[in-house]
Amino acid sequence: xxxxxxxxxxxxxxxxxxxxxxxxxxxxxxxxxxxxxxxxxxxxxxxxxxxxxxxxxxxxxxxxxxxxxxxxxxxxxxxxxxxxxxxxxxxxxxxxxxxxxxxxxxxxxxxxxxxxxxxxxxxxxxxxxxxxxxxxxxxxxxxxxxxxxxxxxxxxxxxxxxxxxxxxxxxxxxxxxxxxxxxxxxxxxxxxxxxxxxxxxxxxxxxxxxxxxxxxxxxxxxxxxxxxxxxxxxxxxxxxxxxxxxxxxxxxxxxxxxxxxxxxxxxxxxxxxxxxxxxxxxxxxxxxxxxxxxxxxxxxxxxxxxxxxxxxxxxxxxxxxxxxxxxxxxxxxxxxxxxxxxxxxxxxxxxxxxxxxxxxxxxxxxxxxxxxxxxxxxxxxxxxxxxxxxxxxxxxxxxxxxxxxxxxxxxxxxxxxxxxx
Length: 421
Prior knowledge:
Blueprint: H1 4-7, H2 20-23, H3 28-35, E1 41-44, H4 51-60, E2 65-70, H5 76-85, E3 95-100, H6 107-111, H7 114-119, E4 122-128, H8 132-135, H9 138-141, E5 145-148, H10 154-172, E6 176-178, H11 182-188, H12 194-206, E7 209-211, E8 214-217, H13 219-226, H14 238-252, H15 256-268, H16 272-287, H17 294-308, H18 314-326, H19 332-345, H20 405-417
Parallel strand pairs: 1-4, 1-5, 2-3, 3-4, 6-8
Antiparallel strand pairs: 7-8
């Protein structure tokens, strides 16, 4: 049986929902559709937001010969077969190639398209759920215009859900009765995915109670059908990294509520390892020396979570998230390390000062024999001034004390002991 989302697929831009940035009045995309002349394009966005639908609408407006391939299954042979047609009678008017999930094609497969895109014998419409500037070969990007599709809002989804109920009622020749809260619940519970929302309507009708008045659908049954549907999560895709980024930035910004929200979303998707790894990084990168104990505390919470497993793992991880979000912040150590690495990568290293070298034989050309290392513990306050950095970096300063109590206390301590330069 053909899914309802396919049976109801829009045949014009006017029937599509969402994407006002693309389909608004006098938008470039509307003018492209009206012109009937299709440029090379890449549609970027999550699943179920209209990328394939728009490609089909565009194909219907041209006299180009349409071919469809999916990057997950297409081979070089499949692509070559279509490209060879461009020089035949079948492709005399040109070929429109709709390539879904282009990110799954390897570099060689993508490169095979370049010559044909360049000379205009093939017009490419590609779609991807991943950022094309990372997932698509640069030479393809430079020959295409990228259009970004966004998740459809719940308000924008309401007309599609209502249309789906009307369609099924007419198709089955029976009234479909549902609570007032059913439509907004489906619209809000499918993560901005039109396809998912429409297919949820079909499931709700199939699971509905058949009565003399018609098919009855209640909110509780719809809730069970949409459970976890609003989760958009792919461990290899943009959403994975967006959520981890949102988690870290919320903790860095000391917003414990947002941090818990994003951690919960990742855990609900079953990805406990990513949360654990990211929290360990945050403890060192964003809290750092402002509260050094955050590192062992978070390590203990992570170890407990991994030993417990879900659902109990959420408890120590919640402690870690809130501790990090509400802790004072410092990235001074992180910045110091990056500054040192920048010098090393620029070739600024140099030999060790003689006093730091392991005791060994002095060469014949040594101007001063002996190591002359002074042992700090033999001096007051366990400190004595001597050179530690190589000569080429002798006066380099990498670390700047953070403006938090912990680091300022250390600064004041050493200011009393180290001689002023």
